[in-house]
């Protein structure tokens, strides 16, 4: 076999050829590939794109990690290295249907894949991608982030514990088409220090918060990637375009207390509105805007970090539960403003500065449009509760039980008009969560931020119960 006389002249030439290749119509190459009913894993690649970010400020910490030359870019590199290591450690069998090659992290990986396919050690960079029929990219995106400081009284005085929450989605994007998402999965986490770690002051430096967000993003990225790999093992790339049963969690709601049929149910719903700054009177119904499955109404009081965190966490946790159950779950949509109207759906350019192939870091149009999903899912927080009792040992301690009640519904909608609903995606599911906290009996009432944290943990437990129901 005669080998090409033209040597590969470095990463830039190869990647430029790649971008030209995937950006064009591909002519007869794609036509020939499309004509085949089969899918050749030897002629397919998966490229790691890393964490991306949108040109907006909602994800302060992730953007600071991912953007180059930012204060915490070094932590971003640590995040990148950790996620890459995790991807390499996941079993290759999960991706066997999609590619026979290892995930591509660099130009040398791409060269190895080419040599494995063709036997050529040296190649013409302008034609090498003609050997491949499919190319996909793994892209991670953040959904929300929130932090708070828990204040509690102990026998040693007032002490503090930091908490933070993040949501992450991992998507497999078709680079040879219109950047469609063919598979996606999510995770959402609450990170808290162990009971032995307490602070005497509620103040943490930016560097200390950055370290905690690093741990949270590592955990959420690993969970989302694991969910995606499991999904890829079951999904069939030969039929992926013909089985577009995808789900998207488009928002989160709180039950209207006036619709409760029992006094305690009404009280639990009212507790949500009081604890999380939720006020349905704020929605401008008189403006003619009609909420639908793609753009549910938002009743968060303007500027409320707790309410926005509640909505973000519920969207992320519902996406996590569906992902764990094996559903194809699109990343949540992003709106430019809180009014959540369709004309203000964000169409940000996604940037990938953490990619090992620098030319792929340039801006790519990418829209989290709900119309890309055939099923829309909406969780509703039905209520929260709190009961108090004494501990069995009666050592001057009290036990508080925080509860949360969820309901999750889904609908199949028209691909062009979300107000047209064809039917339910699944039967409405309900779940409960419980979190217990032991404290000194003499402790005064917790402040609102501390109580929100404990309710968030109970809400998270409810979503864990929901995931178990979905898996049955």
Explain the overall architecture.
This protein has 472 residues and is an alpha/beta fold. The protein contains nine helices and twelve strands. β3 and β4 form a beta hairpin. α8 runs parallel beside α9. The termini are far apart.
Please provide a brief summary of the model.
The chain is an alpha/beta fold. Helices cover 31% and strands 26% of the residues.
Overall pLDDT metric: 79
Assign an overall shape: globular
Q: What's the total helix number?
A: 9
Unreliable stretches, pLDDT < 50, 5 or more residues?
1-36, 336-348
Strand and helix layout:
Elements: H1 11-23, H2 27-35, E1 44-51, H3 60-66, H4 73-89, H5 107-118, E2 134-154, E3 157-174, E4 181-192, H6 206-234, E5 246-249, E6 253-254, H7 263-275, H8 305-324, E7 328-329, E8 349-350, E9 364-365, E10 375-390, E11 397-413, E12 421-440, H9 448-471
Give short descriptive properties of this protein.
472 residues; alpha/beta; 9 helices; globular; disordered N terminus
């Amino acid at each position: 076999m005669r080998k090409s006389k033209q040597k590969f002249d470095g990463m830039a030439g190869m990647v430029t050829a790649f971008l030209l290749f995937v950006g064009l119509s591909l002519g007869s190459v794609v036509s020939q590939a499309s004509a085949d009913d089969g899918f050749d894993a030897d002629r397919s690649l998966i490229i790691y794109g890393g964490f991306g970010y949108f040109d907006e400020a909602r994800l302060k910490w992730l953007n600071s990690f991912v953007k180059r030359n930012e204060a915490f870019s070094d932590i971003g590199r640590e995040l990148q290295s950790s996620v890459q290591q995790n991807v390499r450690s996941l079993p290759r069998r999960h991706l066997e249907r999609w590619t026979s090659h290892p995930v591509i992290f660099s130009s040398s990986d791409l060269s190895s894949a080419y040599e494995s396919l063709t036997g050529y050690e040296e190649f013409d960079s302008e034609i090498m991608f003609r050997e491949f029929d499919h190319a996909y990219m793994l892209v991670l995106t953040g959904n929300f982030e929130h932090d708070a400081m828990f204040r509690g009284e102990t026998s040693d005085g007032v002490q503090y514990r930091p908490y933070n929450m993040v949501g992450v989605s991992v998507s497999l994007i078709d680079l040879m088409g219109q950047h469609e998402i063919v598979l996606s999965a999510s995770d959402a986490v609450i990170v808290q220090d162990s009971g032995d770690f307490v602070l005497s002051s509620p103040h943490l430096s930016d560097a200390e918060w950055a370290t905690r967000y690093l741990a949270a993003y590592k955990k959420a990225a690993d969970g989302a990637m694991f969910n995606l790999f499991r999904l890829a093992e079951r999904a069939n790339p030969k039929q992926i375009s013909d089985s577009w049963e995808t789900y998207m969690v488009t928002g989160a709601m709180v039950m209207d207390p006036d619709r409760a049929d029992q006094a305690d149910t009404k009280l639990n719903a009212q507790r949500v509105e009081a604890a999380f700054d939720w006020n349905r009177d704020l929605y401008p119904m008189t403006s003619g805007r009609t909420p639908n499955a793609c753009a549910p109404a938002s009743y968060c009081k303007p500027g409320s970090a707790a309410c926005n965190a509640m909505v973000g966490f519920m969207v992320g946790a519902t996406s996590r539960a569906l992902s764990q159950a094996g559903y194809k779950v699109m990343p949540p949509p992003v709106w430019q403003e809180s009014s959540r109207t369709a004309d203000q759906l964000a169409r940000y350019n996604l940037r990938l500065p953490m990619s090992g192939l620098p030319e792929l870091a340039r801006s790519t149009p990418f829209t989290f449009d709900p119309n890309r999903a055939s099923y829309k899912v909406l969780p509703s927080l039905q209520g929260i509760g709190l009961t108090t009792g004494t501990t069995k040992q009666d050592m001057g301690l009290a036990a508080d039980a925080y509860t949360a009640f969820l309901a999750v519904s889904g609908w199949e909608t028209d691909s062009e008009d979300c107000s047209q609903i064809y039917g339910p995606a699944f039967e409405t599911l309900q779940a409960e969560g419980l979190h217990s906290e032991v404290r000194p009996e003499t402790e005064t009432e917790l402040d609102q931020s501390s109580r929100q944290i404990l309710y968030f943990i109970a809400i998270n437990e409810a979503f864990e119960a929901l995931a178990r129901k979905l898996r049955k």
